[in-house]
Amino acid sequence: MTRRGLLFTTMDPSTVSESTLARHADAATLARLLQASRADTLATFAACERARPDLRVPHREELNLPLWELGHIGWFQEYWLARNPERHRGHRADPEASRLPPLRASADALYDSTRVPHARRWTLDLPGADATRRDLAAQLERTLALLGEASADDDALYFFRLALLHEDMHHEAALYMAHGLGIATDDARWQPPRLPAPPGALRITAGPCRLGSEAGAGFAFDNELPGHDVGLAAFDIDIQVLRWAEYLPFVEAGVESGGPVPATLRRDGSQWQQWHHGDWHPLDPTEPARHLRFDEALAWCRWSGRRLPTEAEWEHAAMAEPDRFRWGDVWEWTASSFGPFPGFEPHPYRDYSAPWFDGRPVLKGGSFMTQPRLKHTRYRNFFLPHRCDVAAGLRTCSL
Questions:
Q1: Fewer CB atoms near the end CB (10 Å): N or C, the chain?
Q2: Quick check: is 1 in a domain?
Q3: CATH number of the domain where residue 331 is located
């Protein structure tokens, strides 16, 4: 094994996950994935444009203007690739290195999420949809040209992989927005699954586990590094996440005692309904319980005499029992706080992790709205605990 890590060219695509391919992809594979990600970005944006021709959305903490999101995606890719003279250094690049000028002169003032506060994005004079799409096409063309010249090592490909996964994250955020505002997204890939009856629990024996990613082997986010050993006691963990069929008895018990009901649920006579696509719809009890806040996940645990897993327990179970441990249906709250691993060093995209080491919970897994490329057992998500627009639910451990 060289410092190139485990490149896609050494792997059998039929035997590895899409997320593993994305993190180890060679230049040719990255080119294909970047174009596929952009196609999904533009398709979801087009759905928003059809539903809201003015492309305006309410000013809320969890939303961004679709036009700003679209411009930011292209700006981010250009900023870290075409404009970055140190892109070949990968995670060792100097984030303060002087940048080449952007294709659009005003791009930094419009789309830099560090410099443009969230509230101000509603007041910006943004380019129109057609102009923004032209910018994205030109930026992607430059990216693909640079990719064709890049050497085949992990450092040289680091920012291409980062740009890919960054765009995938924003695509999921766009689906959350569409879900909440009643914008139709009919693509079968982004619809909730139906789950079987609970298949029981896994018994995981005590012992050490490896938490986090390994440096020098493909792409890893900085908050996954460095990988380190953690000792675990034996534990039992659910094979799959809770369905509404398991969560609703707790809600009904709360209704009877005057307790709160999750914001995305209501009862219409004897029927429970869920808010999605901008309206109330009958709730399917076989779908995963989701759009739950962290405190709602904890409340179910207290009611049932269970607990949330730690991120180490979740990660170890997923790695130890890959054929039995079902994950990726919804993001899963864990009992662990989002913070740096021992020896953490920030990567050049300084705003990705360190500003959010504030004790918010770690979420693991991925949801039905997450691009498969982003669903990796080592990935650590970190939404605020009061968010209910995220497709987040829970699985539990015995006390």
A1: N
A2: no
A3: 3.90.1580.10
Q: Which residues contact 358 (CB under 8 A, 6 or more apart)?
A: 338
- The pTM of the full predicted model, rounded to 2 decimals, is 0.95
d(C-alpha 17, C-alpha 324), whole Å: 16
Cβ–Cβ under 8 Å, residues 27 and 148: yes
CA–CA gap between residue 309 and residue 396 (Å, rounded):
6
CA 122 to chain centre: 24
| Residue that is last in its domain, among 162, 189, 216 | 189
Residues 41 and 105 in one domain: yes
Q: Which helix (H) or strand (E) holds 164?
A: helix 154-181
Summarised one tens digit per residue, pLDDT across range 288-344 is 999 999 999 999 999 999 999 999 999 999 999 999 999 999 999 999 999 999 999
SS3 content of the chain, % helix, strand, coil (to 5): 40, 15, 45
Q: Are residues 368 and 231 in the same domain?
A: yes
Q: Are 214 and 106 in contact (CB under 8 A)?
A: no
**204-261: per-residue pLDDT in tens?**
999 999 999 998 889 999 999 999 999 999 999 999 999 999 999 999 998 776 667 8
